[in-house]
């Protein structure tokens, strides 16, 4: 049987590189590991870490095609971040002008969670635990 070690990274293509870079670094607090501009592709690649662990590649491309990304659309449903206190995380996002859904409780685990979106509407979640 194949043995996977861990998830290496998640790749996200954004429509407005500077806006998304600000969101993921200044609002969510991810750390920049490396930023590369690829002239041949007119594209940026931003490597982001969470607590020192590489987690997201943020890409920009000229005129990327639109893809539906609501939580129930086919494909990646959402990206969830674990937080110690979902109310505090929600309040921090709202203070930064990010719209956040009401906090809900997972009926199977009893844990609290909430959804919000990145600048391109990618569904993101804070999950307490």
What does the average pLDDT come to? 90
* Helical proportion, percent range: 10-25%
Q: How many strands in all?
A: 8
Q: Strand-and-helix sequence, N→C?
A: EHEEEEHEEE
Structural class: alpha/beta
How much of the polypeptide forms β-strand, as a percent range?
A: 35-45%
Pfam family, one: Glyoxalase
Organism: Larkinella arboricola
Domain VOC: 6-129
Protein name: Glyoxylase I family protein
Describe the structure.
InterPro entries: Fosfomycin_Res_Enzymes, Glyas_Bleomycin-R_OHBP_Dase, Glyas_Fos-R_dOase_dom, VOC_core, YwkD-like_dom. Keywords: Metal-binding. GO terms for molecular function: metal ion binding. This is Glyoxylase I family protein. Residues 6-129 form the VOC domain. It contains 2 helices and 8 strands, in the order βαββββαβββ. The chain folds into 2 domains: 8-63, Roll (2,3-Dihydroxybiphenyl 1,2-Dioxygenase, domain 1); 76-129, Roll (2,3-Dihydroxybiphenyl 1,2-Dioxygenase, domain 1), CATH 3.10.180. It has helices at 17-27, 86-95; strands at residues 10-14, 31-38, 43-50, 53-60, 79-83, 104-105, 112-117, 123-128. Strands 1-4-3-2 form a 4-stranded mixed β-sheet, with helices on one face. The protein has a 4-stranded mixed β-sheet with strand order 5-8-7-6. The longest helix has 11 residues, at 17-27. It is of the alpha/beta class.
Key phrases:
129 residues; alpha/beta; 2,3-Dihydroxybiphenyl 1,2-Dioxygenase, domain 1; four-stranded mixed sheet; Glyoxylase I family protein
């Amino acid at each position: 049987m194949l043995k996977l070690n861990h998830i290496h990274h998640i790749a996200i293509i954004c429509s407005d590189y500077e806006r998304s870079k600000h969101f993921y670094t200044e609002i969510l607090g991810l750390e920049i590991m490396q930023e590369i501009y690829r002239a041949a592709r007119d594209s940026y690649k931003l490597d982001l870490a969470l607590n020192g662990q590489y987690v997201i590649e943020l890409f920009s491309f000229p005129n990327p095609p639109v893809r539906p990304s609501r939580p129930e659309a086919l494909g990646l449903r959402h990206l969830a971040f674990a937080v110690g206190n979902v109310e505090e995380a929600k309040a921090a996002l709202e203070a930064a002008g990010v719209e956040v859904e009401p906090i809900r409780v997972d009926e199977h685990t009893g844990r609290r969670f909430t959804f919000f979106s990145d600048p391109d509407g990618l569904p993101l979640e804070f999950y307490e635990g």
